[in-house]
Design goal:
With about 290 residues, the protein is an alpha/beta fold. The chain has ten helices and nine strands. Strands 5-4-3-2-1-9 form a six-stranded parallel β-sheet. A three-stranded parallel β-sheet has the order 6-7-8, covered by helices on one side. It is globular, with a radius of gyration of 18 Å.
């Protein structure tokens, strides 16, 4: 089956920082067909009106060389340009959107044909990535601005929503956030709704209720178009402390996604964002990948 692995290879705008390009080859060798890599606006334009793509050029080329398909996760805030505390404060006024639009135009033009899918931001239903307060209507405004711009620049690219965290099938605040986006017309603006269905305790089952989320989307579109673009365990979470438990969890998630006909992305580690016990070269050998 096809699956992807999430990867971060650098974490700051300093050109001297080591980029972990060898990790991209490990992802290919694990059998993945896709890679999800962050596209941080603030790490490329750390000085207003001066974009330095040298590090990201290496990443994009390495993904191409590994013959992996590329899902770029665009983070839409920039603390260097706007003087905010960090890049999780999204500027939705006309000036802020214009700045973002120029960056997106320049970036997609630079990487034309090299990025197969673009994801608009990350987890806007949580305060970790949307500050000061998550808002479905505000996120919809962002997508409403970017989607036609992206289509104009690259009509063939797949547009993916930000992954919504903790959408596990139960009726909670996060599920209501997704429902609000669907009512606003999110599916008219993009191709795929992304979820991040974390299960923080194996005692509740190691795979989320994606079927319920898929049914919600079908109710609005008439066909399913969704996928987990970040699914993980933490070794500190209850029931995931052993390698065998982690292997079982990943194998179960792959099998579930295959049964639903969706493409899963599994979160892994890099030198800049370590996930204990998730080294591909040691763990992945025990993961059962369903046949096509």
């Amino acid at each position: 089956m096809s699956f992807g692995i999430c990867c971060h290879t650098y974490s700051n705008p300093d050109i001297a920082e080591t980029i972990n390009l060898e990790y991209i080859e490990e992802i290919r060798d694990a059998g993945a067909k896709w890679i999800r890599h962050n596209l941080f606006w603030n790490l490329i334009e750390s000085t207003e009106n001066r974009c330095d793509y040298r590090k990201h050029d290496q990443v994009v080329q390495a993904i191409q060389d590994a013959e992996l398909k590329h899902l770029a996760n665009l983070y839409c805030g920039n603390n260097y340009v706007f003087g905010t505390a960090d890049d999780k404060y999204i500027q939705l006024d006309s000036a802020g959107l214009a700045k973002l639009g120029e960056f997106v135009k320049t970036t997609l033009g630079r990487y034309a044909g090299k990025i197969q899918a673009l994801q608009i931001h990350n987890e806007p239903n949580g305060a970790s990535f949307w500050k000061p307060t998550p808002s479905a209507s505000e996120y919809f405004t962002l997508v409403e601005f970017l989607s036609p711009l992206i289509r104009e620049i690259d009509p063939d690219i797949t547009i993916v929503s930000a992954g919504l965290s903790n959408i596990t099938g139960t009726q909670n605040t996060d599920t209501k956030f997704l429902q609000a986006l669907l009512r606003l017309g999110l599916l008219d603006l993009l191709d795929v709704v992304a979820l991040h269905p974390y299960i923080q305790s194996a005692a509740t089952g190691r795979t989320p209720d994606l079927a319920t989320a898929a049914a919600m989307i079908r109710d609005h579109r008439g066909s399913q178009s969704m996928g987990p673009t970040d699914w993980r365990y933490h070794a500190a979470w209850a029931g995931y402390s052993t390698s065998s438990a982690r292997q079982t969890a990943i194998s179960g998630m792959l099998s579930l996604c295959q049964s639903l006909g969706i493409l899963p992305f599994i979160f892994s580690w890099t030198g800049t964002d370590a996930e204990p016990g998730f080294a591909i070269n040691s763990l992945w050998s025990g993961v059962v990948i369903p046949p096509v």
